[in-house]
Design goal:
By secondary structure, the chain is of the alpha/beta class. It is built from 23 helices and 17 strands. Strand 13 and strand 14 form a beta hairpin. Helix 7 packs antiparallel against helix 8 and helix 19 packs across helix 23. It is globular, with a radius of gyration of 32 Å.
């Protein structure tokens, strides 16, 4: 069977596989020894991968374990280096396997989750080698929980992403091995691959994961219990290393709470001399945190500083200000032309009470426990959306990030930006190398932001070349806060065309009338220009293509939203220009419109205006027939 035939079976039986490209497939029907089921007759906890399927995974080989007589092998070298591979597990698949039971795996709002599983290649006496997938003591707990959902006879499907050291891991119940003409058992114990190349950069595999412990505060006794467990589970001659790993992993908690190494060692019930080893680890943590040697610890899913340098940073990001009449589709433009993935966005709305502290960040009080368990008041910098996105973009050079500011001129934009306003000056291709285009031309000094983004308060703050700043502005709102020339010149201004001809929505008929939304709005917009010709910015009062959505064309909504706007704003200086003489007040307009049994617009508009709308529809129909 060829790879194309194998992937056809996978696509039809494994729904989670449809979103990615793959170049490697293995399917393993699980024996009892490969599961974590209770009542097994073996102590084995790993999944044994043998034969050609071993080639699916990279491994680290030591000559003293492999290239020698079996009886002369150094068993300690078997796990001296352990490769941990990234596996994606999927929320829908976990729910399917759990079958209504609690899985113990958290996905939040995400559809998938990346976990780490261990790979070790093992020698066996007078038998072929095997790959041992999963060491339950050091794997991500979420992967161990995933394995507990798989039982004897179920299938484990592992799919390698094309030209990447990344895998999808999916479980299929034994009862679901067949779907139509496809049977997944046909792939059991075989390895299917494409002739691709996967580059593996060791620096990409280095990651200190701190998300689960970053926001949790531990007492000395809790830390002691954790260290005791890590030390007790360490393999022979790796006990001291476990203390070092503990110190680096929990360094932030220990240092911020001013805990002492001897107290933690005592709480763990270990020999007091190990305090020196823990202190060494804490010193290493400090160096990493300060980026002393060019390697720093990042929070969350961000990789080490060295890895960031190995990924080419995307360039050319800009500051773009989208403006137009209300409802022209400015936010829709951002969604369709720039980004619709919230993972790469921060969205804010400016308003008169929005401040620099909300936008960039501020120092706020926080109560924390000290080493004795007492409440202690601390003042810490809490980043705003601007600083949060700046950090994300800086730490992920391979992706574009988008700061979206809605209603830019409804807040005092220069005051909200403060000194980071200077960063809006970007390097261009005329004066700077291509790899710098889009980065801030000038840096600024900001202690708190620099410490949050770079881990170094002395670092000059700049917008990276992969971070867009997108803003929207209703031209009808010019009188809210005026944007001065110095501020505006730092943006690429782009008007969003208010074109009803390009919108299918314009053909929607207003409920209870014979008039389409496009014909209605086009006539009204022409009148806005003609009647207010002597008034500045009269075109700002026009109706945008999406000023009223389809549901808002219903009788009860249309009068309250559109007709009210025309009465109160667009034609407030001359209401009789469009409304007939029977409409003396807005209340008359709304009640007459909503209770009308004939054409609703004909009952509230001047007949000449209504006839223009009907004529506009006839012209559109004629044009469409000719085309």
């Amino acid at each position: 069977m060829e790879f194309t035939e194998a992937i056809e079976i996978i696509k039809n039986i494994v729904p989670e596989s449809s979103a990615n490209e793959y170049d490697g497939i293995i399917v393993k029907r699980l024996e009892a020894s490969n599961t974590l089921d209770e009542g097994r007759t073996t102590n084995q906890t790993h999944i044994a991968i043998s034969g050609e399927q071993m080639n699916m995974f990279p491994y680290l080989m030591a000559d003293g374990y492999f290239k020698c007589d079996y009886n002369d092998r150094d068993e300690q070298l078997k796990k001296y280096f352990i490769t941990q591979i990234p596996l994606y597990i999927y929320k829908d698949n976990v729910m399917y396997l759990a079958d209504g039971e609690e899985s113990g795996i958290s996905f939040g709002d995400e559809k998938s989750r990346c976990v780490r599983a261990s790979i070790v290649r093992s020698r066996r006496k007078e038998q072929a080698d095997q790959v041992q997938l999963s060491l339950t003591t050091i794997d991500d707990p979420a992967f161990v929980s995933f394995r507990r959902l798989l039982h004897t006879g179920d299938y484990l499907v592992i799919l390698k992403h094309k030209e990447k050291l990344v895998y999808d891991c999916i479980g299929i119940k034994a009862k679901d091995e067949t779907r139509g003409e496809y049977n997944i058992s046909a792939l059991n114990n075989k390895f299917y691959k494409l002739p691709t190349n996967t580059k593996v950069d060791i620096k990409e595999l280095i990651e200190i994961k701190n998300t689960e412990i970053e926001n949790k505060k531990f007492t000395v006794d809790e830390l002691g219990s954790i260290l005791k467990e890590m030390y007790g589970n360490a393999e022979d001659k790796m006990q001291v290393a476990s203390i070092h790993i503990f110190g680096i992993k929990y360094g932030r908690n220990i240092i911020e709470n001013e805990f002492k190494a001897p107290d933690i060692i005592k709480a763990a019930g270990l020999n007091g001399s190990y305090s020196t080893e823990l202190q060494k680890a804490l010193n290493i943590y400090r160096c990493l945190n300060k980026n002393t040697y060019g390697i720093s610890i990042s929070g969350g899913d961000n990789v080490l500083e060295e890895n960031k340098e190995s990924v080419k940073r995307k360039t050319g990001a800009e500051n773009i200000l989208l403006y137009g009449v209300p409802g022209a589709g400015k936010s829709h433009e951002i969604k369709t032309k720039y980004c619709d993935d919230e993972k790469y966005m921060e969205r804010v709305v400016f308003h008169p009470d929005y401040t620099y502290s909300d936008f960039v960040g501020q120092i706020l009080p926080r109560v924390e426990k000290d080493r004795d368990g007492n409440d202690k008041l601390k003042y810490v910098f809490t980043p705003g959306p601007y600083t949060k996105l700046l950090k994300k973009a800086q730490n992920d050079p391979g992706n574009y990030y988008y700061l979206v500011i809605e209603e830019l001129n409804r807040g005092n934009a220069p005051a909200i930006f403060g000194e980071v306003f200077q960063l809006l000056d970007r390097k261009d291709e005329e004066d700077f190398p291509l790899e710098e285009v889009g980065e801030s031309e000038y840096g600024i000094s900001n202690y708190e932001v620099a410490k949050e983004v770079y881990g170094d308060e002395k670092h000059q703050v700049r917008i990276p070349s992969n971070m867009y700043v997108l803003a929207t502005m209703n031209t009808a709102d010019q009188n809210v806060f005026t944007l001065d020339t110095a501020f505006q010149r730092r943006w690429n201004m782009r008007q969003i065309e208010n074109n009803f001809d390009k919108s299918e929505h314009s053909k929607d008929i207003i409920a209870g009338t014979k008039v389409s939304w496009g014909a209605f709005a086009t006539v009204i917009n022409d009148m806005v220009i003609d009647i207010n010709v002597d008034m500045a910015s009269s075109e700002d009062k026009r109706l945008g293509t999406y000023f009223a959505r389809k549901k808002e064309l219903e009788a009860g909504r249309f009068s309250e939203k559109v007709l009210k706007y025309l009465w109160d704003d667009a034609f407030k200086m001359d209401k009789t220009a469009i409304f007939n003489e029977n409409c003396k007040s807005l209340e008359d307009v709304v009640i007459t419109y909503e209770t009308a049994t004939s054409d609703k617009l004909a009952t509230v508009l001047r007949m000449s205006v209504y006839e223009k709308m009907l004529l506009k529809m006839q012209q559109k129909n004629t044009d469409n027939n000719e085309n």
